[in-house]
Amino acid sequence: DADVTQTPRNRITKTGKRIMLECSQTKGHDRMYWYRQDPGLGLRLIYYSFDVKDINKGEISDGYSVSRQAQAKFSLSLESAIPNQTALYFCATESSSSDTQYFGPGTRLTVL
Amino acid sequence: DAKTTQPTSMDCAEGRAANLPCNHSTISGNEYVYWYRQIHSQGPQYIIHGLKNNETNEMASLIITEDRKSSTLILPHATLRDTAVYYCIVRVASGGSYIPTFGRGTSLIVHP
């Protein structure tokens, strides 16, 4: 969905490096989410935010941090990347009035 | 943990109806059931949702049992482009909020 963009789309990095994944949306939604997906598995929730001043840990938050700089932007950081953080990362937005999620195209991250 | 149970995989002949089941036996009275699908490694796409009445839109139909413990997503005339992983979602209580939780979904293969 072009209304939800993720940058970069692909990234290869080395163990120990700090990396930031960015998500922007033009849908005007108040809620935003970060998920990771490993091969053959479903999506697991990392962090979510229901508005600019709200940050909540998800199922697998260890090793990650987030920043909600504005309603339209939600960034995911890996402070010191490790190989088992190699995965496909998805950002999603959601309106509090509909509970329907809209996903970005994903970021494929490889940690060597 | 996901509150839903879905078969790991299913297949369907092109042009025939695809019926994808989902069990959500612990669903509460005011929780909606949502369906999404993920084609290849793209971001999941919303399909349909319902509370207790059957629903239909341009993509699919959703049949929810009277006791609301299970539902079936119906793709009435499956095409090769419907090959995807289909997720049945209910929201899980977390810190006073209800957040969507994805299981592994059903991998549907539509064959010629």
Q: Rg of chain A to the nearest angstrom?
A: 13 Å
State the secondary-structure class of chain A: mainly beta
Mean pLDDT of chain B: 92
The major sheet of chain A is characterized as: 7 strands, mixed
Shape of chain A: globular
Low-confidence stretches of chain A: none
Commentary on this structure:
The complex is a heterodimer of chains A (112) and B (112). Chain A is globular, with a radius of gyration of 13 Å. In chain A, β5 and β6 form a beta hairpin. Chain A contains no helices and eleven strands. By secondary structure, chain A is mainly beta. In chain A, strands 2, 4, 5, 6, 9, 10 and 11 form a seven-stranded mixed β-sheet that branches. Chain B is 0% helix and 51% strand. Chain B is built from no helices and ten strands. In chain B, the strands form two sheets. In chain B, strands 1, 3, 4, 8, 9 and 10 form a six-stranded mixed β-sheet that branches. Chains A and B meet through β4, β5, β9 and β10 of A and β4, β8 and β9 of B.
In short:
Chain A has strands at residues 4-7, 10-13, 19-25, 31-37, 43-51, 54-57, 64-70, 73-78, 87-94, 101-103, 107-111. Chain A has 112 residues and is mostly beta strands.
Helices, strands, pairings?
The complex is a heterodimer of chains A (112) and B (112).
Chain A: E1 4-7, E2 10-13, E3 19-25, E4 31-37, E5 43-51, E6 54-57, E7 64-70, E8 73-78, E9 87-94, E10 101-103, E11 107-111
Parallel strand pairs in A: 2-11
Antiparallel strand pairs in A: 1-3, 3-8, 4-5, 4-9, 5-6, 7-8, 9-10, 9-11
Chain B: E1 9-13, E2 18-23, E3 33-38, E4 45-50, E5 55-56, E6 61-64, E7 70-75, E8 84-94, E9 97-101, E10 106-111
Parallel strand pairs in B: 1-10
Antiparallel strand pairs in B: 2-7, 3-4, 3-8, 5-6, 6-7, 8-9, 8-10
